Amino acid sequence: MIARRMRPIGWVAGVATAALSFYLVSLQVAAERAALATVERGIQATEDEIRHLETEFSARASLRQLEAYNDEVLALAAPTVDQYLTSEVQLASYAPGAAEPAPARPAAPATALAKAEAAAPTTAPEPARTRPAFKPAVVEDAKGKDAPVIPAVRQPPLIQAVAMLEPVRPALPKAAAPRPAAERNTAAPAAPKPRAAGPKVQKVALLDETALADIARQAAKTKGRKE
Amino acid sequence: MSATAAARPVALRPLPERRPEVALGHFRLMLLMLLFLGATAVIMLRIGYLAFFADGGAARAPVRAITRGDITDRNGIALAQTIAAWSIGIHPQQVIGDRRVLARELARLMPEKSADQYLRILNAPLSFTYLRRRATPELVAAVNRLGEPAIDLGREPERIYPQGMLAAHVLGFTDFNGNGVSGMEKVLERELTGAGGRGAALSIDSRVQQALEAELGAAMHKFSAIGAAGVVMDLKTGEVIALTSLPELNPNKPAQQGPDAAFNRATLGVYELGSTFKPFTVAMAMDAGVVKSLGQMYNCPRALKAGRFSITDTHPFGRACSVAEIMQESSNIGTAQIAAQLGAARQRQFLERMHFLERVRIELPERGRSLYPGQDWGDIATMTVGYGHGIAVSPLHLATGYATLFNGGVWRPATLIKRGPGNPVPEGERVFSAETSYKMQALLRLVVTHGTGKKADAPGYRVGGKTGTAEKIVGGRYTGAAVVTTFAGVFPMDAPRYVIVAMLDDPKATAETYGFHTAGWNVAPIVSGVVGRIGPMLGVMPNPGREANLAEVLPFVHAKE
Fold it and tell me: Phi/psi at B202 (nearest 5 deg)?
């Protein structure tokens, strides 16, 4: 009697259990799917962010910007014809880049830096305060404390040092040298050579950028002709 | 399920059957209960459905925000990219807070409109309006901090030109909805937005482009020119490696540019390009058999009467001169005589075959129509066209013409899309014979080594080319005051590979140029500077040991005293 009375309840319990277990399975699947979607969205967001950062990076490292840095600070000039060596004999007799390991590749334009430096100090070495107008573009970014600064540029000591150009030889190549070098030279990145500190440090931005670039190029050229 | 489970026991309970009204009451109660149970069951079913079938996988799938492909240069450096940017909009009718306060806050954050204007927007009967598109993340964060739910912050694709103004006239720009409006953005609309939006590679080399722009810009500044244009082109394939027009355009802010910046001087502008035309005349004459040798002599008086005009030279010979000398000293008189010998019909035919009398062939939509004598192409017109006056073409025409002249004589259209499987090098149309093309090499190298273009020489790169100074027509007549100076060159001249054309619009004389404003003084140094920079990038190594075959021309040149 009781068993007969209980039978429907048993049915109900059985069906409920089965339904519940089905539901649990499907819940699990749904949860997995949701997790997958979350990961996918995360990937998407990261990709977007990477893209964003890449865009920002390429905008900040745009060729125009690199050229401006070069005009202001590095004054690299394109290598002249006598810096291209075509034979071992030439290499052996090449004095300025004696320490430079120029391999079998004939055109290693790695001496561009040395060349430009040797040429540039002819510009009058004036004290830095005679040119109050010179403000390196990079520092300005970091100046506005309240304005949000993009972390990539937030290294004021490093870059300021470059801009002021006191003897900060290690910082210089690290901060800016490799990029313009890559821009200028298709081949080997110009290894920054040990340079003599001195007047060349002050050549920076005594003149406006165009004149400086002109002078550097001119000097490199005339020097190349003389040799 | 549970509804039936709950309903059963109710149905099972034996009803006391006493009075009909009580039974009716019970019946009504039961009905009510069934309604409740039914409602619960419906809700449960709905929840179950949502749980099982609409788990949101599809609804919340990441939306691909990138709708427009990238434009890259030939080396894969991105020139135009689309990123997801922020936009700030508002639903004015759903504003909850105090509109005045909100308007004041908005005016503080976005000061391009006053608080009154914002208040007007907030009171407007609009369902939605943008307050700012392309907002910076900082601004978006600040606006979000206002806490007004009616403000709608959305992501939308934004076109960014990371290289800034580099190659701006080539790239063009898009409108706010991301549709190409000008330049390659417009041309490549289908490729960029089509299935997948793969992106496209241009033939531009951004390093070369930068070198060209920098050198041109510096010269333009130095000589206070009102504009400049430059083209570097691969003469074998017709690929444009760099093309620029100054003053430049900022594609990131296209709306803020003046019409002068939007004007593409390299393709849309047409100019009388002066003496840079002379090599064409000589080549035509050689091809037609009029000039049989570069030593052929012409009488070069101090002035040549042509109808009511008098043609003069800047360096008059006042004696007989050879074709080589005519080119070397850029003699109008000599060239006019060669052109007259050639005749109008043949000259016109050659110019047509070089496609000089139609819009320049390139993908860009901004292309100018050439100006030429048309119906009255008489003897005088023939002579003036011979030295580049009375005909106006774009600098890109000139570059294409020089490419034709020095690639062995085959005309091919210029292209801004990288040559490859999708854009093969066309067969081309023969204009000049290979022999003419070869002889012209020595002739134009002579101009740079011994003639008017000495300053264009980049040591070791064997630049050859021709200077051109054309007076501008101001108020309907030629004046010496305003000129267009051009240099069209080719390097390396012993095995030509690249054409470079540089043009300055109205350069002024400076002390440095000793009061001259001719091409040899202002444009030629640009070419020297550019070639020195781009040569190694393009794989042209300087080599002082190589030279064009000047033995073709040197015997015909008088040694200077």
Answer: -85, 170
Q: Inter-chain contact B218–A186, Cβ cutoff 8 Å?
A: no
Say yes or no: domain B71-201 is CATH 3.90.1310.10.
yes
Q: Do A81 and B543 touch (CB under 8 A)?
A: yes
Largest pairwise CA distance in chain A: 122
Closest residue in B to A66 (Cα) is: B210
Q: Which tens digit of pLDDT belongs to each residue from B273-294?
A: 888 888 999 999 888 888 888 8
User: Which residues in chain B are closer than 8 Å to A107, comparing Cβ atoms?
Assistant: 536, 541
Verify whether the Cβ–Cβ distance A183 to B1 is below 8 Å: no
Q: What is the pLDDT of residue A117?
A: 42
Beta bridge partners of B303: B312
Contact A55 B536 (CB under 8 A): no
At residue B221, what is the residue type?
A: H
Contacts of A80 in chain B (CB under 8 A): 459-460, 532, 542
Chain A residue at shortest CA distance from B526: A214
pTM for this entry: 0.70
Q: Could you give the C-alpha distances from A104 to A81, A88, A108, B344, B379, in angstroms and in order?
A: 17, 8, 9, 56, 60
Return the structure tokens found at B86: 């922020």
For residue B241, the model assigns a pLDDT of 92
Find which of B210, B212, B462 to mutate to test the A interface (most A CBs within 10 Å of its CB): B210
Average pLDDT of the residues of chain B: 83
Rounded to 5°, angle at Cα A40 from A38 and A45: 95
Catalytic residues of B: 275
Nearest by CB to residue A55, choosing from B61, B65, B81, is B81
pLDDT in tens, B525-546: 899 989 988 988 888 888 877 7
Domain coordinates in residue numbering, chain B: 2-41, 71-201, 209-251+268-556
Q: How confident is the model at residue B10 (pLDDT cuts 50, 70, 90)?
A: low
Q: How far is B176 from chain A (nearest CA, A)?
A: 19
Show residues of chain A in contact with B2, CB under 8 Å.
16
**What residues contact A167, with CB distance under 8 A and at least 6 apart?**
A197, A201
CATH 3.40.710.10 correct for B209-251+268-556: yes
In 3-state terms, chain B is what percent helix, strand and coil (to 5)? 40, 20, 40
Q: Is the peptide bond before B492 cis (omega within 30 degrees of 0)?
A: yes
Scored b (16 or more CB within 10 A) or e, B535-548 reads bbbbebbbbeeeeb
